């Protein structure tokens, strides 16, 4: 009997030792990110009080939007979960902030210089562990994110939060003043838009009106998926047939009689549309205008404007312009990766995406019925033809080279050359190409290769 008991105890000891050995071995089930392995247990959101933090980089996201679209919905569903926003000095760079703070969540556009710091967690294990349904995500957003790391590890660095699309904002009062019929749900070609713009461009009683503003070359370029810089070399690739058409269209807009003033004013902006109210049509981002227009309304400034589809080239009818992707990511240094990802999953649920749709952002999920809720909670959008937002399919944004932010001023200079410096299209392209390549050579030295 004693021998039997000894044998049982020995077997138990061997089993315990084997278990401890397995736990200490490299193949212990830990994911590469340091989190639990797929299928392992993890803390559920709401199980215990937790405070998570979020930092915004590379995108406009007001405190009201943060509260309305992220913090408040999570707190409502999980009363013991708080999400706080990290506020930084206005002149602090993202890399500076992220070297000082460790936010659990990162909101915004994926920026190459920030990606390079390693702050973005590869979400593939979290996606698997939490059974997140990637098929619900719109390809225009998710494919863009995955393309960033294509062939370089193929990490999934973020989940799209919303799709920032382009629309045409137009001032009905200016259309009325000059007897021009309102825009409809018909998508115009650029030539048609330029012709309408010409009818709205004139000076009356000392007030200079401009018919069509399209954010110059950087905005017009969104009509194609073509990049500014070669993905491999980083050099300029703007001397192509498509880019030549964009330069020619820009020149045509500038050649509209009266577009450029006697004192050579040529660069018309958002404030000229909203505050001065002298722009007939402005083609721009949704996020660039809806929030500021609502702020003006709250200040008591209102005027008669509406929304129409974005113009494009004849062969592109049915599509709009390159979409900007705002996303949510998990910090690779966070101690709460599973909880942070569960927050992302909640925001990407139909209920979460309905909230952002009602508050003026286009959802990132393939749920067509959410379109009818677009803008319902934004007073300035009451009575507007908001469904025109969804006419035309947005294009996937081109791969944005890490050097691109350092050379965009050259496109502004090229537009100025076309507008007031007397350069023709060929000369403007040649000058811009030379300037961009010179800048790239400097950036390659200061930033290194990517």
Describe this structure in words.
The protein is α/β, with parallel strands linked by helices. The protein folds into two domains: 50-164 and 324-366, Periplasmic binding protein-like II (D-Maltodextrin-Binding Protein, domain 2); 166-322 and 400-447, Periplasmic binding protein-like II (D-Maltodextrin-Binding Protein, domain 2, 3-Layer(aba) Sandwich). It contains 16 helices and 13 strands. The chain has helices spanning 2-24, 63-77, 94-100, 112-115, 124-129, 139-148, 172-177, 190-199, 216-220, 241-254, 270-274, 286-298, 337-347, 350-358, 408-419, 425-447; strands at residues 50-57, 81-85, 105-108, 159-164, 166-171, 202-204, 207-213, 279-285, 305-308, 319-322, 324-330, 362-363, 393-395. The protein has a six-stranded mixed beta sheet with strand order 2-1-3-11-4-12, with helices on both faces. Strands 6-7-8-5-9 form a five-stranded mixed beta sheet. α15 (408-419) packs antiparallel against α16. The longest helix is centred in the N-terminal third of the chain and has 23 residues, at 2-24.
Broad structural category: alpha/beta
Which H/E pattern describes the elements?
HEHEHEHHHEEHHEEHHHEHEEEHHEEHH
CATH class of the largest domain, anyone?
Answer: Alpha Beta
What's the helical proportion of residues? 25-40%
What is the CA-based Rg, rounded? 26 Å
| Fold-level CATH name of the largest domain | D-Maltodextrin-Binding Protein, domain 2
- Give the count of structural domains: 2
Going across the major beta sheet, what is the strand order? 2-1-3-11-4-12
What percentage of the residues does DSSP assign to strands (E)? Answer: 5-15%
CATH superfamily of the largest domain: Periplasmic binding protein-like II
Quick one: overall form? globular
What composes the largest sheet? Answer: 6 strands, mixed
Report the uncertain regions: 1-39
Second CATH tier, the architecture of the largest domain:
3-Layer(aba) Sandwich
Distance between the termini: 71 Å
Number of strands: 13
């Amino acid at each position: 009997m004693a021998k039997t008991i000894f044998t049982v105890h020995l077997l138990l000891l061997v089993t315990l030792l084997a278990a401890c050995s397995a736990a200490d071995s490299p193949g212990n089930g830990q994911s590469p990110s340091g989190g639990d392995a797929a299928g392992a247990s993890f803390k559920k959101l709401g199980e215990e009080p937790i405070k998570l933090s979020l930092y915004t980089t590379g995108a406009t996201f007001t405190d009201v939007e943060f509260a309305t679209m992220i913090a408040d919905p999570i707190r409502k569903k999980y009363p013991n979960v708080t999400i706080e926003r990290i506020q930084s000095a206005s002149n602090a760079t993202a890399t500076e902030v992220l070297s000082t703070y460790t936010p659990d969540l990162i909101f915004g556009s994926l920026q190459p210089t920030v990606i390079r710091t390693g702050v973005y967690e590869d979400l593939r294990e979290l996606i698997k562990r939490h059974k997140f349904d990637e098929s619900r995500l719109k390809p225009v957003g998710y494919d863009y994110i995955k393309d960033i790391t294509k062939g370089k590890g193929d990490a999934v660095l973020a989940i799209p939060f919303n799709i920032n699309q382009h629309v045409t904002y137009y001032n009905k009062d200016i259309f009325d003043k000059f007897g021009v019929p309102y825009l409809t749900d018909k998508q115009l070609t650029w030539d048609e838009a330029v012709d309408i713009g010409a009818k709205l461009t004139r000076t009356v009683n000392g007030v200079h009106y401009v018919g069509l503003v399209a954010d110059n070359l950087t905005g017009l370029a969104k009509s194609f998926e073509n990049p500014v810089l070669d993905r491999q070399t980083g050099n300029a690739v703007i001397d192509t047939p498509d880019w030549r058409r964009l330069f020619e269209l820009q020149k045509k807009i500038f050649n509209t009689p009266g577009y450029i003033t006697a004192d050579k004013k040529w660069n018309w902006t958002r404030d000229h549309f909203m505050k001065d109210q002298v722009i007939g049509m402005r083609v721009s981002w949704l996020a660039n205008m809806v929030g500021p227009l609502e702020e003006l309304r709250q200040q008591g400034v209102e005027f008669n404007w509406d929304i129409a589809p974005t113009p494009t080239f004849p062969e592109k009818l049915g599509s709009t312009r390159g979409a900007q992707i705002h996303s949510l990511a998990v910090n690779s240094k966070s101690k709460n990766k599973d909880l942070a990802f569960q927050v992302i999953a909640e925001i990407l649920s139909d209920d979460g995406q309905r909230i952002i749709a009602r508050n003026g952002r286009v959802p990132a999920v393939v749920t067509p019925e959410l379109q009818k809720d677009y803008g319902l909670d934004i007073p300035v959008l009451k009575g507007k033809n908001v469904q025109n937002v969804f006419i035309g399919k947005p294009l996937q944004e081109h791969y944005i080279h890490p050097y691109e932010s350092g050379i965009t001023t050259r496109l502004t200079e090229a537009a100025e050359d076309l507008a007031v410096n007397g350069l023709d299209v060929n000369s403007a392209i040649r000058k811009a190409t030379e300037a961009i390549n010179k800048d790239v050579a400097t950036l390659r030295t200061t930033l290194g290769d990517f």
